[in-house]
Design goal:
The chain has 288 residues and is α/β, with parallel strands linked by helices. It has helices at 3-16, 22-34, 38-43, 50-64, 69-73, 95-105, 123-131, 144-156, 203-208, 222-234, 250-258; strands at 75-78, 81-84, 113-117, 136-141, 163-167, 183-188, 235-244, 261-268, 274-281. Helix 1 (3-16) runs parallel beside helix 4 and helix 2 runs antiparallel to helix 4. The chain is elongated. The structure holds glutamine.
C-alpha cells in the first residue's frame, strides 16, 4: 500500500462516516504518520510499512468516530507555536489568537505582571510570555490535568521560568502571593457556552472536549461575573481586563464591566464576529 492508496482508502472511510473535511483530514493524519509534507504524499507516493498502515488506520478510525484531529495527533498550532493537547484541555482556537493580539496591542514597556484565569493547555499565557519578554504571568486552572499539560507546554517552549502555573479555583489560589493591586493585566477565555446549548454543540466538541472548559452556566456568563468582581482587587489602577467572549455576549459582558471598568472596547474576529471585550479598571474600584 502506497501513500496514495492509503489516502484513497481513508477518504472513502471518512466520507462514509459523514466527515465533511475528509480529504484534508486524511492528508493531515497521513502526514503525521509518515512524517512527509502534504505535497510529498503525492509526489513520492512511497510504500507504507506495516506499522505505518496500522497506525494510520487507527487514526482514521478515531477520526471516523468524530474525534478531533488535534487529539489524535496530540498537538495543535497556535500563532507560531505547537502546543501539546489531550482530551483534558480545550483545543486552542484561532479566534483566541485575536485575544492574545489585543492584550499585546495594549501592552507597554512598564508592564511587569499578568494573570490568566483558566489557562487550559496554557496557550494564552505561553504565547503572551513569548511575545512580551519582560512580563511574568500567574496562570490558574481548576483542573490538575490541565495544569500538568500547561507546564509541559511551557517547558517545551522555554517559558517555564516566566509563568507560574497554579492549580485551583480562579482567584482563590492567588491570594497570599502579594499580587493585590499590582497586576497590569488579567486575561481569560472562560467557559462561555450556555448550559442548555451544550448538547447541541457539534459532535466533535460535545463528545471529546472537556465540559468544564465549555459550560458557562445558565446564561453562559457565570465566569465573567466572577472574574469581573475579583479583577479590581488585583489590577493596578487603569490595568486591563481582557476577555474572549462567545456569540452575542459582548453587550452583556460590557454591561457587567461598566461599574468598575472604563474605556471598554469590543473587538471583532476575522469573521467579523464580536470576539473580545476589554476595559481598564477605574481608579475608585482598584486597590491603590
Ligand atoms: N485558555 C485556554 C484556551 O483559550 C482554555 C480555555 C478554556 O478552557 N475555557 O484555549
Amino acid at each position: 500500500m502506497t501513500t496514495l492508496d492509503a489516502l484513497h482508502e481513508a477518504i472513502d472511510s471518512l466520507k462514509t462516516a459523514g466527515i465533511e473535511t475528509a480529504v484534508t483530514d486524511a492528508e493531515w493524519l497521513l502526514e503525521d504518520v509518515v512524517s512527509l509534507l502534504r505535497h510529498q504524499l503525492y509526489l513520492q507516493n512511497r510504500p507504507l510499512t506495516d506499522k505505518e498502515i496500522i497506525r494510520y488506520r487507527t487514526s482514521i478510525k478515531r477520526r471516523c468516530n468524530h474525534e478531533p484531529i488535534a487529539y489524535i495527533i496530540g498537538s495543535k498550532t497556535f500563532l507560531d507555536w505547537e502546543f501539546v493537547v489531550d482530551t483534558q484541555v480545550l483545543i486552542p482556537r484561532w479566534e483566541t489568537e485575536v485575544l492574545v493580539n489585543e492584550v499585546c496591542k495594549h501592552s507597554c514597556q512598564g508592564w511587569g505582571v499578568g494573570i490568566e484565569i483558566g489557562t487550559g493547555s496554557g496557550v494564552i499565557a505561553i504565547s503572551l510570555a513569548k511575545i512580551l519578554p519582560h512580563i511574568k504571568i500567574y496562570a490558574t486552572d481548576i483542573s490538575p490535568a490541565a495544569i500538568k499539560i500547561a507546564r509541559l507546554n511551557a517547558e517545551r517552549l522555554g517559558m517555564s521560568d516566566r509563568i507560574v502555573f497554579i492549580q485551583g479555583d480562579m482567584f482563590s489560589v492567588l491570594s497570599g502571593l502579594g499580587l493585590e493591586g499590582s497586576v497590569d493585566f488579567i486575561v481569560s477565555n472562560p467557559p462561555y457556552i450556555l448550559s442548555k446549548e451544550m448538547k447541541s454543540l457539534p459532535q466533535d466538541v460535545r463528545d471529546f472536549e472537556p465540559k468544564e472548559a465549555l459550560d458557562g452556566g445558565e446564561d453562559g456568563l457565570d465566569y465573567y461575573r466572577k472574574i469581573i468582581s475579583n479583577a479590581p482587587n488585583y489590577l493596578v489602577p487603569e490595568g486591563y481586563l481582557t476577555f474572549e467572549i462567545g456569540l452575542s455576549q459582548a453587550k452583556s459582558v460590557k454591561e457587567l464591566m461598566q461599574e468598575c471598568f472604563f474605556n471598554i472596547q469590543i473587538i471583532n474576529d476575522l469573521c467579523q464576529r464580536e470576539r473580545v471585550v476589554l476595559g481598564q479598571v477605574r481608579r475608585m474600584c482598584s486597590l491603590d
